[in-house]
Design a protein that fits this description.
Chain B: It is a multi-pass membrane protein. The complex is a heterodimer. Chain A is built from 10 helices and no strands. By secondary structure, chain A is mainly α. In chain A, helix 3 packs across helix 6. Chain B contains 8 helices and no strands. The longest helix of chain B is centred in the N-terminal third of the chain and has 35 residues. Chain B is flat, with a radius of gyration of 22 Å. In chain B, 38% of the residues are buried. Classes of the chains: A mainly alpha, B mainly alpha. Chains A and B meet through helix 2, helix 3, helix 8, helix 9 and helix 10 of A and helix 2, helix 3, helix 4, helix 6 and helix 7 of B.
Chain lengths: 240, 231
């Protein structure tokens, strides 16, 4: 208890950083995932190839390798980055952490989005076309709302994974929950308490998010009978 | 091919250890996961509650935190408890064992969910028919239920394997000389971090490709004897 009283403010500071990183990377990743998913479904071969290669690389390699590739790897191009004025960004661990997390989640999210778009009954899109909606309006009024509804449980699981994935940024010295736990544990040799408290904080964040996600899900599916609702967020296995 | 300055073999050694850790953890996760799934389905209430608590905890905590908790936390806890009894113990866990133990613990929870869903996907008539033929529970499970479960479970287990392989990279944090760790060593001594981390990425992509191919073959094998709907 002494341990908690003494260190809670630092851990809460770390938790705020974790929440920031997770929220910002998820939002930016979502923005990047939409063009990626559309490119994957596009009729143009080049667009499909670029999107497929991007997703294959980011889903096929460990997040830690991507993080090191961007944070340490950028040092190899220091002069070039300096010349275009980007070195100040790549020198900053927080920026590299956010960039890596964003690029990574964009790949997984685009696959969820693609699956959801492909799961929309064909008739709905044909009906939109029959009504004379333009391509953009079909996307905005029919395809995206339906894709969000279908893909939401899978996306909620992706956010849960992303909250946990942010813990890796502690390895490049960012002081998120895990970073604080490592520092506090090493200072007082209280590793068990420090990592135990960190684990509890992550549990709180994850299950608080899932609670909210299920309420959103209930809203999205309010018009459907129970039997036709998709599987609940957080139920069952691994989505990645 | 980039110039690896003689560090290529270090990466290959790392790759071998990565595969070793991944295979050992996967075997552990399959065994523990199957037991946990059976527990979740058939154990008495207290047992079910314990297994539920375990999977809930593991799925809500980052792999890295669990790894650090086991590798650094558990020895210090034991030392502190021992010190309470006036014992002066110095204890440390081998990184290889800590890594395999942690990955087994985590991915058993995910495998458990896959097995449970696969069991629930079996039509009850299969079991009833086996009992009607006079097979006992053990033989029914081994000869009738398990082979059919595998067909439902393989896609999920393939997914667990892919995520597990990538999670082995975390063990580099506790200095186990697997692929990531060796790439880091090479990157530091040659001052070419991008080259070596990119080479490591390519090796991970190689594992992913081979795994995808293997998974497709296994799924075809597990689905032998079932009729395929053709469209």
């Amino acid at each position: 208890m002494d341990f908690v009283n003494e260190n809670l403010p630092r851990f809460l500071g770390g938790a705020w950083l974790t929440v920031q990183l997770a929220a910002m990377s998820c939002l930016m990743g979502l923005a990047l995932a939409l063009p990626l998913a559309l490119a994957r479904l596009s009729a143009r071969r080049a667009a499909r190839a670029v999107s497929t290669a991007y997703v294959f690389f980011f889903r096929g390699t460990p997040l830690l390798a991507q993080l090191f590739l961007i944070y340490y790897g950028s040092g190899q191009f220091r002069h070039a980055l300096d010349a275009v004025g980007l070195w100040t960004f790549f020198r900053d661990p927080w920026f590299c952490a956010l960039l890596t997390l964003t690029l990574n989640t964009a790949a997984y999210t685009s696959e969820i989005l693609r699956g959801a778009i492909q799961a929309i009954p064909k008739g709905e899109v044909e009906a939109a076309r029959a009504l004379g909606l333009t391509g953009w309006m079909q996307l905005r009024l029919i395809v995206l709302p339906r894709a969000i509804q279908i893909g939401w449980p899978a996306y909620a699981n992706e956010v849960v994974y992303q909250i946990q994935a942010t813990s890796l940024v502690s390895i490049i010295t960012v002081m998120d929950i895990t970073g604080v736990a490592r520092a506090v544990g090493a200072r007082d040799f209280t590793f068990f308490e420090a990592f135990g408290l960190a684990a509890l904080l992550y549990l709180c964040l994850v299950y608080a998010f899932l609670f909210g996600a299920r309420r959103i899900e209930a809203r999205l599916n309010a018009h459907l009978p129970q039997a036709r609702r998709p599987r609940a967020a957080g139920a069952g296995g691994l989505t990645r | 091919m980039p110039d690896l300055q003689g560090y290529g073999w270090l990466l290959i050694d790392g790759l071998m250890l990565t595969l070793g850790v991944a295979v050992a953890s996967m075997i552990g996760a399959l065994g523990v996961g199957l037991l946990a799934a059976m527990g979740k389905l058939f154990a008495p209430r207290a047992g079910r509650f314990l297994i539920e608590a375990y999977t809930t905890f593991v799925r809500g905590v980052p792999e890295l935190v669990l790894l650090l908790l086991i590798y650094y936390g558990v020895p210090t806890l034991i030392q502190n408890v021992a010190a309470g009894f006036g014992l002066d113990w110095s204890l440390s866990i081998n990184p290889f064992a800590a890594g395999i133990g942690t990955l087994t613990l985590i991915y058993a929870a995910f495998a458990c969910e896959v097995f449970r869903a696969a069991y629930l996907a079996l039509p009850p008539g299969q079991r009833e028919a086996a009992y009607a033929l006079g097979l006992n529970r053990g033989i029914t499970f081994r000869k009738v239920e398990l082979p059919q479960m595998m067909r439902h479970a393989l896609p999920g287990l393939g997914n667990v394997w892919m995520v597990l392989v990538k999670a082995t990279a975390l063990i580099s944090i506790i200095q186990l000389p697997e692929l990531m760790r060796n790439a880091d060593i090479a990157a530091r001594s040659t001052r070419q971090p991008f080259t070596f981390f990119f080479a490591a990425c390519l090796l991970y992509l190689g594992i992913t490709l081979v795994s995808m191919w293997g998974q497709a073959r296994l799924e075809r094998w597990a689905a032998r004897g079932t009729l395929e709907a053709r469209s």
